[in-house]
């Protein structure tokens, strides 16, 4: 590993750029989340606009999910080896190129390929968090990491109403031209304001491990995301799951033999790291149900007896308070982690998420209660998502922070995909006829809230099971593993 040399206080333009590092990285995180959500308001109209089937249009979401899941750990590992800023800028470039292609074309094949390119942006947050660990002093690191983690929710809350407004009042290509401009600004800002981290892990990139992980994840997530449409017991879905088990088993054996594996499975097996990944998966499941169910619930026709018949713009505005709350509560999360430890913050966040779903179950008819419940869930998500990268940063060697955080984000993605599949399955099995249309019942929505709340309690239990850290592990100097070596970091993990 390359160790950073003596750090001298920056002056002049460099000092200005250093002060902009956190805002620029946060802008990249928000932009990534916005890019993932802007297509949602378009989905009902895209079959007509592109001359394709609804099934083909759904791949604009699936392609981004699959590409993001595969590329997040891969780009995280590449960042640890070749430079985090370089890989971060490359991910933003791919995202921007994808946006430009969407702006230029109405062909569904091009649009799906472009959305797959945008999936590379999923690596922005773990790479940025790793840069913050390398570049910021301990007294600023906690709040910056908390803010960076919150950008996922902030961007999602901003993206939906923004996209809905553009789609309602302008040509749909305009939305992608706007995101292309924002992407170009993000790339320029990263190249100008963010320093390249000196912390590296040398070695040869694990191409075999990358291909194995990609194949296994595609089989797994494709089966999860398409199970409701193809049938959970269909030969295609069962075959995908069987292939995922076989491929990932072979991949695990290859990773354990590799000298420089893509994912250090021995490190993942340590309780402080492995349980953090389990908590990330469960929290991702619990968090995602909030956005999925709230959007459908408030847009349901008034004739259902519970729906509010809101437009997509009004729906986005209902979720906006949650995004604002995530921004406001990220400093609180950092303070709790500094005083009580990140596992306490994670457990508290999961508990708050469960309380939010209890409010949703108590009253999902009045708009103010719906907004309150959704905002409480968003608050808990802020606490949990802000604590997860801090747990990882304190448990792994400095030269593996980007790849380890990439795996953690991957687990959140798998949790979100499982949440989407579970919510869809519940709502499909609890329907009624209203005005000749089949719509989910209120009982189905409440059951989805109950499942998400129960999963949040499991996440709380997983957080409390994470072993406590040694005092000597806290706020280690930049680029210094616990007790001075990678092996000792593994012992302490």
Q: Kindly provide the radius of gyration, computed on alpha-carbon positions and rounded to a whole number of angstroms.
A: 22 Å
Order of SSEs, N→C? HHHHHHHHHHHHHHHHEEHH
Overall geometry: globular
Strand content: under 5%
Instruction: Please give the order of strands in the largest beta sheet.
Output: 1-2
The low-confidence runs, each spanning 5 or more residues with pLDDT under 50, are: 1-8, 471-493
How far is the N terminus from the C terminus? 19 Å
Number of strands: 2
Helix percentage range: over 70%
For the sheet with most strands, the description reads: 2 strands, antiparallel
How many helices does DSSP assign? 18
The computed structural class is mainly alpha
Average pLDDT metric: 85
In short:
The chain is mainly alpha-helical and 493 residues long. The protein is 76% helix and 2% strand.
Account of the protein in words:
It is a single chain. The protein has 493 residues and is mostly helical. The chain is built from 18 helices and 2 strands. It has a two-stranded antiparallel sheet with strand order 1-2. Strand 1 and strand 2 form a beta hairpin. Helix 14 packs antiparallel against helix 15 and helix 15 packs antiparallel against helix 16. It is globular, with a radius of gyration of 22 Å. The two termini are 19 Å apart.
Explain the layout of strands and helices:
Elements: H1 12-37, H2 46-50, H3 54-82, H4 84-104, H5 108-118, H6 124-135, H7 138-169, H8 172-193, H9 207-230, H10 235-257, H11 265-268, H12 271-299, H13 312-340, H14 342-362, H15 367-395, H16 401-428, E1 431-434, E2 437-440, H17 442-465, H18 486-492
Antiparallel strand pairs: 1-2
């Amino acid at each position: 590993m390359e160790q950073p040399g003596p750090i001298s206080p920056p002056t002049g333009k460099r000092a200005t750029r250093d002060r902009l590092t956190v805002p620029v990285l946060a802008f990249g995180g928000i932009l990534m989340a916005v890019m993932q959500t802007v297509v949602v308001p378009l989905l009902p109209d895209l079959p007509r606009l592109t001359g394709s089937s609804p099934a083909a249009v759904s791949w604009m979401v699936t392609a981004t999910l699959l590409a993001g899941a595969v590329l997040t750990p891969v780009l995280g590992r590449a960042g640890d080896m070749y430079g985090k800023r370089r890989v971060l800028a490359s991910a933003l470039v791919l995202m921007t190129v994808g946006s430009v292609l969407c702006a230029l074309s109405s062909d569904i094949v091009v649009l799906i390929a472009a959305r797959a390119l945008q999936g590379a942006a999923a690596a922005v947050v773990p790479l940025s968090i790793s840069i913050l660990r390398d570049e910021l002093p301990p007294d600023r690191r906690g709040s910056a990491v908390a803010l960076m983690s919150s950008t996922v929710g902030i961007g999602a809350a901003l993206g939906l109403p923004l996209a809905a407004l553009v789609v309602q009042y302008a040509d749909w290509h305009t939305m992608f031209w706007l995101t292309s401009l924002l992407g170009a600004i993000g790339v320029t800002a990263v190249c100008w304001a963010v320093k390249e981290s000196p912390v590296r892990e040398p070695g040869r990139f694990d191409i075999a491990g990358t291909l194995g992980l990609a194949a296994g994840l595609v089989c797994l997530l494709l089966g999860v995301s398409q199970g409701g449409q193809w049938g959970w017991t269909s030969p295609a879905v069962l075959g995908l799951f069987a292939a995922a088990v076989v491929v990932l088993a072979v991949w695990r054996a290859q990773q354990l033999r590799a000298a420089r594996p893509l994912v250090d499975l021995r490190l993942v097996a340590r309780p402080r790291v492995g349980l953090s990944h389990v908590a990330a998966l469960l929290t991702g499941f619990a968090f995602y149900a909030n956005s999925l169910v709230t959007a459908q619930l408030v847009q349901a026709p008034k004739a259902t007896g519970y729906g509010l018949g809101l437009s997509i713009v009004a729906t986005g505005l209902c979720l906006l308070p949650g995004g604002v709350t995530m921004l406001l509560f990220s400093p609180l999360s950092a303070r709790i982690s500094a005083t009580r430890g990140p596992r306490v913050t994670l457990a508290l966040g999961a508990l708050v998420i469960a309380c939010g779903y209890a409010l949703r179950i108590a009253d999902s008819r009045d708009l103010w209660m719906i907004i309150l419940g959704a905002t409480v869930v968003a608050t808990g998500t802020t606490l949990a998502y802000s604590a997860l990268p801090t747990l990882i940063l304190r448990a792994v060697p400095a030269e593996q922070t980007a790849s380890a955080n990439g795996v953690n984000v991957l687990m959140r993605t798998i949790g979100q995909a499982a949440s989407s599949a579970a919510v869809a399955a519940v709502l499909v099995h609890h329907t009624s006829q209203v005005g000749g249309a089949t719509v989910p019942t209120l009982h189905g929505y409440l059951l989805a809230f109950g499942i998400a709340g129960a999963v949040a309690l499991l996440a709380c239990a997983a957080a409390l099971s994470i072993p406590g850290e040694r005092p000597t592990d806290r706020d280690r100097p930049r680029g210094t593993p616990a007790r001075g070596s990678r092996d000792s970091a593994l012992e302490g993990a």
